[in-house]
Every structure is written in structure tokens, then in C-alpha cells.
Write a structure and sequence with these properties.
about 475 residues, six-stranded mixed sheet
């Protein structure tokens, strides 16, 4: 049985740096600004033979419960209660503060094992801060440098001593399952089967949108608990936090992301890091839910976010949040449908669901739309069906003629899914107009029931078998 460790401490002592060191990746945002981390972020840690779950937390501060700092503190206290062990990080370079003393007292009251960690011990003049840490009454401090990776063996030994050797090195039974690997383009060329959609495979979903659209509130409603920090302030979420839960027997891994403002307004380094983290979450996800504020929908930034998601090739679903604040719902719904079709022609047929993250209204319908969209995103069509369809399309609307000779579309196959991409062998591929490509894409959407997902068509000029003979003569 594995164990869970929470990293706690006041702001700017290096908790996120230590978290990144233990998970071996730069998952948490790190900046000199105090209070960068706000939500609690879990990760899989490895430390000199130990494997455990690590939780990065917000810096603990004394604050009113209703304030942002107070709500951040509540999230950190929840992580301490959830964990088997806490790593209490202090700053050996700058020494102790009254906040450190108050936090030490809080951890003692919890009655759970605590490892006192003196970070930044490599700095000149850190000895006094290291020895001051003894006054906290939590045992001998472990000197480390999270930034440079120093002291990790001592940290491992301190964790083993606190949690117990049997617990620290206990192994979990891991079931080996088949890994779902999408077929390569070469494999897809010869494929003539239409695989059945696997509705048991875990699904990765990213929640994106403008600041204060209600993304974190929506995820909390799905989970049934206040797992993510929320509030009236815009831009609360900074890191892209992942949470897992089950929906009708299927594992859903959902990513909360920072609100994405217009690029011209993003000037601070920290916000740029947050937006970059959100973009990584989009690329990692399979389906992306773009959350609109139903009271002020279709801002320019909303449309740009949708366009970004589609250009990344992700399956997209629109969620019109704060529906509980709408009075004339029928009229607003009709207006939203008209604007969706008019303003998002590149996403024809995109699924749009009115919801309320505050009350939970419409969430089942949203999840079903996510599953249905992912099913289309993974869709494969047999080569035989595609070529029969291509022949029909050319009869209904023949390709244009170039220099008196009509372009011929000879052969079509699907080269990949996720998103669906097709290759058509033809003559004079460079002369085929963009309008005819759109005609074919719209036909694929309609005839094979493929709404809302990006569709790619690549054209390849057929080789002339007599070309080499001409060159020799």
C-alpha cells in the first residue's frame, strides 16, 4: 500500500520546486512571486527507491476564512488531513517567521507524522536559519536544496523514519493492461476494418475558457466536493490541475486550466506561464470543453479559444455556463444556436450544452456530449466505403477543370484518427481549389455523421508511370 505526502509551508519557501524535483517533471509553476500555487496538486513521486503520492499545496498564511488566502489555507488543510505525512518546508536562508511557528503548532495539533525540511541550505549564511528550525519542536531539520537536488538521500531517510520502513517500501500489485496506441499512418493505409469504440478507456478532458467563466466551479460540481479553489475573483486558477473521477463506470481525468485572456492583455510573466500550462493541457487532452459565460457569450476571446482548440486537432464541446442566471431561456437558447452556427463555421455541428456549474443542472447532458464527441474523434471509416462515397461526390459535383483538363480524384483512404485525417490521390493536387476541399469536408460530416471535430484532408498527386521514360528520352 502506497502512502501520501503533503508539502506544506509559508509562501515562497520552495514547495513547488521540491514538488517538481520529486516528480521529475516541471509540473508546478515556479516563480519568485509569493503565492504562485493556489490549488493542491497531486503527483507521482520517486525518491531513491521510494514511490509515493506527493501533494503540492498553497503557502499557509493567517487570513480571514472568506478571503482568497483563507480559502487557499482551507485547501492546504484538506491536503494535510488527506496525507499520511507532511513535509514542513522552512527557508533556511531567510530564517523563521512567526507564521512558521504558527504552522508548526497547527501540524502538531493534527497528530500526524511531520518531517521538518530546511530548504535553501546551500545558500551562504543559511546555518543560523537551519539551527533556528530546532526551536519549532518538530525534531531535527533535514537540510536540502530543492533547486539543486542536494540532500535528497537525507530526505529519503527522514521520510522512511517517519512513515515506517514497512509502509515506505510496501509494493502495490499493479495489473498489466493493454495500452491503447493509435495506429500509425502506414498501418492505417491498409486498414479496412472499422474498429469498435472502446467506451471503457479512461478519457482525458480539459476545461478551458476566459477568466471567471466558472471552470473550477464546474469541476467541483462534477466531483461533489470543493476540490478546486473558487471565488468571485477572476484568474484564481494558475496551474493546470488534474483530477480523476468516475462517470457511469468510466474513468474521467479532467484538467482545470487558467483563464485565457487576449494575448495583448497578458503582460505579467506569471500569467504567461499559466497560459502556457493551459495550452499544454489542451494538447494532452482528447476532448476540450470550452466554457462560455452565458450572460456574456461569444466575446472575441471565446471565438479565438475555440479556433485554437480546433487547430490543435482536439474534439471540442461548448458549455454555456451560469444558465441559472438566465431568465428568458428559450429566447437566449435560440440566439445562442444561431450565433454558434454563424460565428463558428469551422466547427459545423459542434455540440453546445447549457449548464449551471453552481447548481449542477445539465452536467449529465454535458458529459454525454463529451463522450459522443470523443466517439466521433476516434472514428474510422473503411477504405471501401470512402471510395464509393468519393465516386458519388464527384458525380454530384465534379472537380473543376484546369487548362481544359478536369482534375480526377482517384483513391481515398483514412490515414489516421484523433482527429480523422484522410488522403486522396488525384491529378493536379496543387490546382484543386480550397472551396472543393470544404465541399468534401462538409460531405464527410453529413454522410458519415462526424459533426464538431476537426477533419483533415491531404491531397497527393498520382505518380505518372511514364514520367521516368520521358526524362530518359
Amino acid at each position: 500500500m502506497s502512502f501520501t505526502v503533503a508539502i506544506v509551508g509559508r509562501p515562497n519557501v520552495g514547495k513547488s520546486t521540491l514538488f517538481n524535483r520529486l516528480v521529475g517533471k516541471k509540473l508546478a509553476l515556479v516563480d519568485d512571486t509569493p503565492g504562485v500555487t493556489r490549488d493542491r496538486r497531486p503527483g507521482d513521486a520517486r525518491l531513491m527507491g521510494l514511490t509515493f503520492t506527493i501533494i503540492d499545496t498553497a503557502g499557509l498564511e493567517e487570513a480571514d476564512e472568506e478571503s482568497l488566502q483563507g480559502r487557499m489555507r482551507a485547501q492546504t488543510e484538506a491536503a494535510i488531513d488527506e496525507a499520511d505525512l507532511s513535509l514542513f518546508v522552512v527557508d533556511a536562508k531567510n530564517g523563521l517567521t512567526p507564521v512558521d511557528t504558527a504552522l508548526a503548532e497547527m501540524l502538531r495539533r493534527r497528530g500526524k507524522p511531520v518531517v521538518l525540511v530546511a530548504n535553501k541550505s546551500e545558500a551562504r549564511g543559511s546555518d543560523s536559519g537551519f539551527y533556528d528550525a530546532y526551536t519549532l519542536g518538530l525534531g531535527e531539520p533535514t537540510p536540502i536544496s530543492a533547486e539543486h537536488g542536494q540532500g535528497m538521500i537525507d530526505l529519503r531517510d527522514a521520510i522512511v523514519a517517519a512513515i515506517g520502513k514497512d509502509r515506505a517500501y510496501a509494493k502495490e500489485d499493479v495489473a498489466v493492461t493493454d495500452v491503447d496506441i493509435p495506429p500509425s499512418e502506414n498501418e492505417a493505409d491498409g486498414e479496412d476494418e472499422e474498429p469498435i469504440y472502446d467506451d471503457t478507456k479512461p478519457l482525458r478532458v480539459a476545461i478551458v475558457g476566459r477568466p471567471n467563466a466558472g471552470k473550477s466551479t464546474l469541476i467541483n460540481r462534477f466531483l461533489g466536493e470543493d476540490r478546486l479553489l473558487t471565488g468571485p475573483e477572476a484568474g484564481i486558477t494558475r496551474d493546470s490541475i488534474s483530477v480523476e473521477w468516475d462517470w457511469r463506470g468510466r474513468t474521467i481525468k479532467m484538467f482545470d486550466t487558467a483563464g485565457m485572456r487576449r494575448k495583448a492583455r497578458v503582460t505579467e510573466k506569471l500569467e504567461k506561464l499559466s497560459v502556457a500550462d493551459a495550452l499544454r493541457a489542451i494538447r494532452f487532452a482528447e476532448t476540450v470543453v470550452i466554457v462560455f459565460d452565458a450572460t456574456i457569450p461569444f466575446e472575441k476571446q471565446d471565438l479565438q479559444i475555440v479556433d485554437l482548440v480546433l487547430r490543435e486537432g482536439r474534439a471540442a464541446v461548448l458549455a454555456f455556463n451560469k444558465w441559472d442566471m438566465i431568465e428568458d431561456r428559450q429566447a437566449v437558447l435560440a440566439d445562442l444556436r444561431e450565433k454558434t452556427d454563424r460565428l463558428l463555421p469551422q466547427a459545423r455541428g459542434i455540440r453546445a450544452v447549457p449548464i449551471s456549474g453552481q447548481t449542477g443542472w445539465g452536467l449529465d447532458k454535458l458529459m454525454q456530449s463529451i463522450i459522443d464527441t470523443d466517439r466521433v474523434w476516434n472514428k474510422r471509416i473503411s477504405t471501401a466505403k470512402l471510395n464509393r462515397w468519393l465516386e458519388t461526390q464527384q458525380i454530384l459535383h465534379p472537380p473543376p477543370a484546369v487548362s481544359g483538363r478536369r482534375i480526377k480524384l482517384k483513391y481515398m483512404t483514412q490515414v489516421k484518427a484523433r482527429p480523422p485525417a484522410f488522403m486522396i490521390s488525384c491529378t493536379r493536387s496543387d490546382a484543386l481549389p480550397e472551396s472543393y476541399t470544404r465541399y468534401l469536408i462538409n460531405g464527410l460530416r453529413a454522410d458519415f455523421d462526424m459533426p464538431s471535430v476537426p477533419i483533415r484532408i491531404h491531397f497527393r498527386s498520382a505518380e505518372n508511370p511514364f514520367e521516368s521514360k520521358k526524362k530518359r528520352t
